[in-house]
Amino acid sequence: MKLKTIPYPDYERNLPQSGKCILAQLRDENIIVYQAFNPHIADYAVRHQQFGGPHYSFSRMSWIKPNFLWMMYRAGWASKPGQERILAIEIGLDKFEHIFNQAVISSYQPDRHETRELWTDAVKNSEVRLQWDPDHDPHGKKLERRAVQLGMKGQVLKSFATEWIVSIEDITDFVARQKVFVDSNDLANLQVAREQVVQTG
After folding, report:
1. What pLDDT digit, counting tens, does each position of 53-110 carry?
2. How far apart (Å, rounded) are the C-alpha atoms in residues 153 and 59?
3. Is the pTM of this model over 0.85?
């Protein structure tokens, strides 16, 4: 497995405990993001090292998450229907920053847009949505720290899915092995992705 891991007890030691921050694993000049899919989409993606095929839709928004534990919370450690396969997707950090810089936050915030109408127009004209959600511990408990997820559509999604991917790794077996430790509350033996602060909000 290419994904670098760390014991969970060591994971939180040097990370901020509050605030908005992008946590991710870097690989040279690239960053790892995660998505969860059904087996049909995942099999095609791993085989072709890009997304497509009869089961993948370019007409709906697709969300990427750079934070491993947020992905595990969202997918129930690969147990939720339609999210049975977890993919670690490597893209250039510059491409990730390009996506992030185009993002419009998914809910109106007065400190970012002067009026609700301006925010509505920005949402309509953007192909990327940004959400800062509570990060979660392995059991799904909310943390004070906020984790980011980015939703893509249109040409940005097309470019991400078919041009910008460096590699796609299916880490479902690793996730299943770690879920055993989570279910038995044996967090001392739990392994998670090694991550660092890439950017703060």
Report:
1. 999 999 999 999 999 999 999 999 999 999 999 999 999 999 999 999 988 775 545 5
2. 7
3. yes
Distance of CA 21 to the CA centre of its chain: 13
Residue 109 CB burial class (10 angstroms; 0-12, 13-18, ≥19): exposed
CA distance 86 to 170: 6
In tens, the pLDDT along 140-177 reads 999 999 999 999 999 999 999 999 999 999 999 999 99
**What distance in Å separates the CA atoms of residue 119 and residue 106, rounded to the nearest whole number?**
9
Q: Which residues of 158-182 are buried (b: 16+ CB within 10 A; e: fewer)?
A: bbbbeebbbebbbbbebbeebbebb
